Amino acid sequence: MCELLKLWLRRTHLILTLVSGLFLICLSITGALLVYAKDIQRLVQPQLWTVENPSNNNVIAYPVLLSTITLHTQQPVTLLMPEQNPDYAWQAQLANKQYVSVNPYTGTIIHQYDYYRTIYGFTMALHRWLIYEDGDGNRPLRNWVSVCALIFIINMLVGVYIWLKPKNRLKRLVIKPKAKLRILLYQLHTVIGMYLFIPLILIAFTGMAFNWKTQTQAVLEFVTQNTVEPRPNAPTLN
């Protein structure tokens, strides 16, 4: 019975990997790129995302800057994103969902753009909903991305159970470089998987939380036996 269960778990582990593997590779690559996407933007298009920092470092007052942006674009500003780095242009979202890159020292509009046509925005869209958006503005594939993350969590739990089942489990947390290729790959898979188990669970779970907020909040409250505080409202732009 134990051997049958072990065989069933191993096959389940492999099938789940095959079903979600391609999407998880995509999510992993785009997730890593998101960390550096804005830096890449500034590197390849510095004229659109960076500004010349004056010696006094004084930015325009927020009300004046907002009025200047509205005057030049004929659109109210719904979101302003200041930067801590004095060499970076600030970003603002307009009422028509367009964005502008603005010089905070002069109020000059450097660039007006569609957010999801930038390097960062495209990578974000690919990572969170595989780019696809229907005619009504819905993003149905974002649920599939969350399903893949859930499958990944289940797969990791199955893998940990398989590792815990036999005896001498700690002795198997060893990589033997001189072993045969098949054994070496298995050892790398097992050891790396066990060491990264908790971080990977957290990454997958928090990724799902962007889409399945209510469900992940319920799980978190059940596990911690605490209530998750609601997100504070953003300050209003006047």
Task: Describe this structure as you would to a colleague.
With 238 residues, the protein is α+β, with helices and mostly antiparallel strands. The protein folds into two domains: 93 residues, no CATH class; 79 residues, no CATH class. Helices cover 56% and strands 8% of the residues. The chain has eight helices and four strands; from the N terminus they run H-H-H-E-E-E-E-H-H-H-H-H. It has a four-stranded antiparallel β-sheet with strand order 1-2-3-4. A hairpin with a 6-residue loop joins strand 3 and strand 4. Helix 1 runs antiparallel to helix 4, helix 1 packs across helix 5 and helix 7 packs across helix 8. The N and C termini lie far apart (69 Å). 13% of the residues are buried. The model has no long low-confidence stretch (mean pLDDT 90).
Using brief descriptors, characterize the structure shown.
about 240 residues, 2 domains, four-stranded antiparallel sheet, alpha+beta
Portion in beta strands: 5-15%
**Which descriptor suits the 3D outline?**
elongated
Helix content: 55-70%
Q: Stretches where pLDDT falls below 50 for ≥5 residues?
A: none
Helix tally equals 8
Return the structural class: alpha+beta
Round the mean pLDDT to the nearest integer and report it.
Answer: 90
Report the count of strand segments. Answer: 4
Multimeric state: single chain
Rg over alpha carbons:
24 Å
Largest sheet, strands/sense/barrel: 4 strands, antiparallel
Series of H and E elements: HHHEEEEHHHHH
Kindly give the count of domains: 2
* C-alpha end-to-end distance: 69 Å
Pfam family, one: PepSY_TM
Protein name: PepSY domain-containing protein
InterPro entries: PepSY-ass_TM (IPR005625)
Keywords: Membrane, Transmembrane, Transmembrane helix
